[in-house]
Amino acid sequence: MAQAKISAKASEAAQQQQTGGQLRGRFYRSTSMADRSSRLLENLDQLELRVEAFRDAASAMEQEKEILLEMIHNIQNSQDMRHISEGEREELNLTANRLMGRTLTVEVSVETIRNAQQQESLLHATKMIDEIVNKLLDDLEDAKIRLMSLYGACTSDVPAGPIDQKFQSVVIGCAIEDQKKIKRRLETLLRNLENSEKSITLLEHQKPSVRQSCNSKQD
Q: Would you say 76 and 96 are in contact if contact means Cβ atoms under 8 Å apart?
């Protein structure tokens, strides 16, 4: 009888030891898994920073391409190009076209992740800008005023003129990256308009001298 009790206690102790070992094993495995999970999460956090830096660098290259193309275009259409010999102008245009061609060989595209509402807002904002651009030749001054009101809706600075409230509400619904691109497009359009106005002003100033030259020849 005593032997049976001893055997039962020994069996119970062995069972408790085995159960305790399993629990300890589970505890150690759980701790190990938590460590690995923490390390993986830390690695992903670091990679996220690198991904954002990569996208920012690609976006900067995209902007640089736009700037280069605009600068080349402005040189080709500058007043200085109109006041040189035809041979020199032809040679400079060949160089400018070569540079533009080499710039266009660089393909940089940063896709923006949008939900359905942001996509709709982008299309609406683009349509509002395009409507003004399509009427540029009809009334240059009115187009400039309207573009400035759109630009005022995109900037945090105190605008110089009225703000298009409707456009502002549309732009707010766009993704952040699209908001920046819309603002850059308006800046480019306004710069081109300013350059066009300067060209027109220069041409107007040149007209009297041309008339005087013609009159002097007639005399």
A: yes
Contact residues for 140 (Cβ-Cβ < 8 A; gap 6+): 193, 196, 197
Residue that has been written with the tokens 């009888």 in this structure? 1
Q: What is the dihedral of CA 137, 141, 143, 146, to 10 degrees?
A: 180
Greatest Cα pair distance, the chain, in angstroms, is: 148
- 149-163, pLDDT tens digit by residue? 999 998 877 667 788
Could you tell me if 136 and 146 are in contact, meaning their C-beta atoms sit under 8 angstroms apart? Answer: no
Q: What is the CA radius of gyration of the chain?
A: 35
174-186 burial, b at 16+ Cβ within 10 Å, e below that, comes to bbebbbebbbebb
> Three-state DSSP class for 77?
coil
d(CA 121, CA 164): 15
Q: Summarize pLDDT for 77-98 with one digit per residue, the tens.
A: 888 888 899 999 999 999 999 9
User: What DSSP letter does each residue of 91-124 carry, written as one string?
Assistant: HHHHHHHHHHHHHHT-----PPP--HHHHHHHHH
- Helix, coil or strand: residue 30: helix
Task: Tell me the CA distances in angstroms from 119 to 47, 52, 148, 165, one per residue in order.
Answer: 28, 22, 24, 20
Instruction: Copy the structure tokens of residue 76.
Output: 């080709």
What is the spatial distance between Cα 126 and Cα 90, in angstroms, rounded to a whole number?
A: 36
Measured in degrees and rounded to the nearest 5, phi and psi for residue 138 equal: -70, -40
